[in-house]
Write a structure and sequence with these properties.
- The complex is a heterodimer of chains A (510) and B (309).
- Helices cover 62% and strands 11% of the residues of chain A.
- Chain A has 510 residues and is of the alpha/beta class.
- Chain A folds into 3 domains: 2-229, MetI-like (MetI-like fold, Orthogonal Bundle), CATH 1.10.3720.10; 235-339 and 448-502, D-Maltodextrin-Binding Protein, domain 2 (3-Layer(aba) Sandwich), CATH 3.40.190; 343-434, D-Maltodextrin-Binding Protein, domain 2 (3-Layer(aba) Sandwich), CATH 3.40.190.
- In chain A, the strands form 3 sheets. A 5-stranded mixed beta sheet of chain A has the order 7-6-8-5-9. In chain A, strands 3-10-4 form a 3-stranded antiparallel beta sheet. Chain A has a two-stranded parallel sheet with strand order 1-2.
- In chain A, β1 (235-241), α10 (244-260) and β2 (265-273) form a beta-alpha-beta unit.
- In chain A, α1 packs antiparallel against α6, α1 (2-45) packs across α9 (206-229) and α2 packs antiparallel against α4.
- Chain A is elongated, with a radius of gyration of 28 Å.
- Chain B is α/β, with parallel strands linked by helices and 309 residues long.
- Chain B has helices at residues 42-49, 72-77, 94-104, 109-122, 127-130, 140-152, 170-187, 198-204, 222-227, 232-245, 276-280, 298-307; strands spanning 2-13, 16-27, 31-35, 57-62, 65-66, 79-82, 158-162, 190-195, 207-212, 215-220, 258-259, 266-267, 285-288, 294-296.
- In chain B, α3 (94-104) packs parallel to α6 (140-152) and α4 (109-122) crosses α6.
- The chains are: A alpha/beta (510), B alpha/beta (309).
- Chains A and B meet through α5 and α6 of A and α2 and α3 of B.
Chain lengths: 510, 309
């Protein structure tokens, strides 16, 4: 609980932004669904045969799993808010349509007969008699749809649509339940507030309700349309994977680019998704730049020849190989930074000092095997514990642990050695040391900006700005920055700026 | 002058005639009652007048013009309508319900307001008390008074009433019947009134049309029907009405009885037939009435029955 409150305090501006996105997304979807489903429900009154068919169709649409629907939409409308809104609208159609139809259908026929007998025109009858009488039922449908939309909108984060889902996703990714909980609680509260608000709407005269709805539609729809249509200065979209490190890096990118060319606007999409998602987004021009690792490129994004793989395994720099293969896909990578974010074998700093250890090979001095806590994957990988055994000839008394528990086990003294990533903030937090991989077992993962060739050619000044980070940032520096963001709760932008200033990469003015 | 004329009108549903070859005329200012059991076609006949139902064959003339040649909206604005289900719009105040048609006709605002109050007064509902209330705050009888206001508000030359009092309790029904008679005398509006209750028909109708299975059996004044029923069905239907006379609460017989200071042995709302047995034995009956206790004997009751309609 304490933890949750602290996370909330340090993250509240992010949470507020995510909440804003979530509300915008939900309201736009709700209003679109209303604009489609309510007239359809009204129309269906006089076309009972279509009414049955429409109920079937909207019902079937609702049974499509939301993930599948998003997956189906991406090739058609791309990523971002568009597929998220479409999916939400699809889900909201059924409850609104169904309740509009049945609400109107179940009005006591005496009222419609009276309206007819008094010579009311059809539109007047609808507005003065039918809709007001059906309103409680219609509002019920809208409430159901709203709760559904707000809940489902958390999935928008999966397709780069933003919203509270980013918190949930980030929490799952970092194994940080407080983040997930924060996102989930915010979404639940939002659903409650909206549900209450819509119930209130019913108590007001319908003219006021329609006015409020129209105002909301104009405010949110208007901003969305404005954002889409208004001529804007050229915007470069820089995205990052989940986590603090990509977020710090893209903030550096932004500050460096904007320093070079004040006219260019950089839009950041932090915590945008997983590797393949970002890679596809880059290729389909949804984003322009994102930081990627050379190691990831050669293992997952391109297909090196056997010879190239052999060279990499023998410790050759993977950057030239990655760049060459990326060029074949009309992509290019900027110059890599200094730090190598790869597997690391980690011990306590005190322990290293006591035994005067800095390198992995020095662990062979211990006669009895050290107690090691490795995560399941590291334990079974050739470039993990297996390699340590064969290349270094080291043997540990291994206990496999969940990734999230390794550092605590090491800190608590249950194990003496664990695996990690060389830039993990916990290394700084728990006063640990990542041992040097002196026999080059672990593949090299160096970060560099990935972009399309056409973009790089059109923006040489951007490439130049990004390359100012070439060979900058050491592993301890990255650990420290991750620590500042993850543990100290500093904003990534602030941490990025501090680094750039300290290293003379950013002019003091402004 | 004939306001309304049915000329060989037939209405069929799936080939089955609900109203068959109906011809009749209704005069200006008449209170015309269509009476019959359920399934007689009386309501269908009524609803063909404001074209809620269209006839299959034949023509209906309103002021010598065929209904189908009349603009539907004009027609309906000229024909008030009172429903059995009352159907005041529950989302509008009493005033708004009454103002509905004048508003559609774009009457000036203050004229509408004045008319609403006038109508409420005409049906004995205090305007300042009832104007802004919602229909569900009113009793059934009060609601139907408002229903009648709504139908009459724009001063239509004709009003249709579809079993307007059948859902009301006997006391409200009696007072609303009296009110309709009063309004009719005052406004001279042509009224077509549908009921299944022969008593109501006899009490209200200037002329009565008796219907059975879609056919018109007899059209005549109440006196004629009572004296010369056209068929045995009409006489039976009329006879069926008689027992209702015996349900009359005995306070209505006060003017026939003798005032007394004796303690009443019967409550004033006791039905007449309850006291017939003691009367048959030659006894007096004393009634405890608010207006003053009275005594009744057998000949006084016969006197009432002789004068009752």
């Amino acid at each position: 609980m304490q933890n949750l409150w602290e996370t909330f305090l340090t993250r509240r501006s992010d949470l507020l932004a995510a909440l804003g996105e979530h509300i915008q997304l939900s309201l736009i979807a709700l209003l679109l669904a209303l604009l489609i489903a309510v007239p359809l429900g009204i129309w269906a009154q006089n076309h009972p045969r279509f009414a049955g068919a429409l109920l079937q169709v909207t019902g079937v649409l609702q049974t499509i799993p939301s993930l599948a629907l998003l997956g189906l939409l991406i090739p058609i409308v791309g990523i971002g808010t568009a597929p998220a809104i479409i999916a939400l609208v699809v889900y909201a159609l059924l409850p609104i349509f169904q309740n509009t139809y049945t609400g109107l259908h179940e009005i006591d026929p005496a009222y419609t007969e009276a309206a007819d007998a008094f010579g009311m025109s059809k539109p007047l009858k609808l507005v003065k008699v039918q809709l007001p009488l059906a309103m409680p039922v219609i509002i019920g449908g809208i409430r159901t749809a709203t709760v559904l939309i707000i809940g489902t909108a958390t999935l928008a984060a999966l397709v780069g649509g933003g919203g509270l889902g980013t918190f949930i996703l980030l929490g799952i990714n970092r194994n940080d339940t407080t983040l997930t909980l924060l996102g989930a609680i915010a979404a639940a509260l939002l659903a409650l507030v909206f549900s209450w608000f819509i119930a209130r709407l019913q108590k007001w005269p319908w003219r006021v309700s329609v006015g409020v709805l129209a105002a909301l539609a104009l405010a949110f729809g208007g901003t969305a349309v404005y954002q889409a249509v208004a001529p804007q200065p050229e915007t470069i979209i820089v995205a990052g994977k989940l986590g603090s490190e990509p977020e710090i890096l893209i903030n550096m990118y932004k500050q460096l680019i904007e320093q070079t060319d004040a006219k260019v606007k950089v839009s950041l999409k932090p915590n945008f998704g997983q590797t393949s998602f970002l890679f596809n987004a880059l290729k389909s021009k949804k984003i322009d730049v994102y930081p990627e690792f050379t190691g990831t490129v050669v293992t997952s994004l391109v297909k090196p020849t056997a010879k190239q793989n052999q060279a990499i395994a023998n410790g050759a720099d993977s950057y030239p190989i990655a760049e060459k293969l990326l060029n074949q896909q009309q992509l290019t990578m900027g110059k890599p930074m200094k730090y190598n974010n790869t597997y690391a074998v980690v011990v306590k700093r005190d322990f290293a000092k006591a035994h005067q250890i800095t390198k992995l090979s020095q662990l062979s001095q211990f006669a009895t095997p050290l107690k090691a806590g490795f995560d399941l994957e590291f334990n079974s990988r050739q470039d993990g514990y297996k390699g340590i055994q064969s290349l270094y000839g080291l043997t540990f008394s291994v206990q496999t642990l969940d990734a999230s528990l390794r550092y605590q086990a090491l800190d608590g003294g249950q194990v003496q050695v664990t695996d990690g990533y060389s830039t993990d903030s916990q290394i700084r937090q728990y006063h640990l040391l990542a041992l040097q991989d002196d026999k080059h077992l672990f593949p090299v993962y160096r970060g560099a900006p990935l972009m399309r060739q056409d973009f790089a050619q059109a923006h040489p000044q951007v490439v130049k700005a990004l390359n100012r980070l070439a060979n900058r940032i050491t592993e301890p520096e990255m650990q420290e920055m991750n620590y500042q963001v993850n543990v100290k709760g500093q904003s990534a932008a602030k941490v990025a700026k501090a680094y750039l200033k300290a290293h003379g990469l950013l002019k003091e003015a402004r | 002058m004939n306001v309304l004329k049915f000329d060989h009108v037939t209405k069929r549903y799936d080939g089955r005639a609900v109203v068959e070859d109906l011809s009749l005329t209704i005069g200006e200012g008449e209170l015309f009652v269509l009476v019959g059991a359920s399934g007689s076609g009386k309501t269908t006949t009524l609803k063909m007048i404001n074209r809620l139902i269209e006839p299959t064959d034949g023509d209906i003339y309103f002021n010598d013009k065929r209904l189908i040649d009349t603009d539907l909206r004009d027609l309906r604005w000229n024909i008030g309508y009172v429903l059995q289900q009352i159907a005041l719009f529950p989302n509008m105040t009493v005033g708004a319900n009454i103002a509905l048609i004048p508003q559609m006709k774009h009457w000036p605002k203050d004229q509408i307001k004045q008319r609403v109050d006038e109508m409420l007064e005409a049906v004995d509902l205090a305007p300042e008390k009832y104007r802004d209330r919602m229909p569900d705050e009113l009793s059934g009888g009060e609601q139907q008074r408002v229903g009648i206001c709504r139908a009459l508000a724009s001063k239509p030359p004709m009003v249709l009433m579809d079993e307007p009092f059948s859902a009301l309790d006997p006391i409200s029904r009696t007072s609303l019947q009296d009110m309709v008679l009063r309004l009719h005398r005052k406004l001279k509006t042509t009224i077509v009134f549908v009921t299944h209750d022969m008593n109501e028909a006899m009490k209200l109708g200037d002329r009565i049309a008796v219907m059975r299975s879609g056919k018109l059996l007899q059209v005549a004044t109440p006196e004629e029907i009572a004296a010369n029923p056209a068929t045995s069905f009409v006489s039976d239907f009329f006879a069926g009405a008689a027992p209702a006379l015996l349900e009359t609460p005995i306070f209505e017989l006060a003017s026939f009885g003798t005032p007394t200071t004796e303690q009443g042995s019967y409550a004033e709302d006791t039905p007449l037939q309850v006291v017939l047995a003691p009367l048959a034995e030659g006894k007096h009956v004393t009634v405890a009435a608010q207006a003053g206790n009275f005594k009744l004997n057998a000949s006084q009751v016969l006197g009432y029955l002789a004068k009752a309609k």
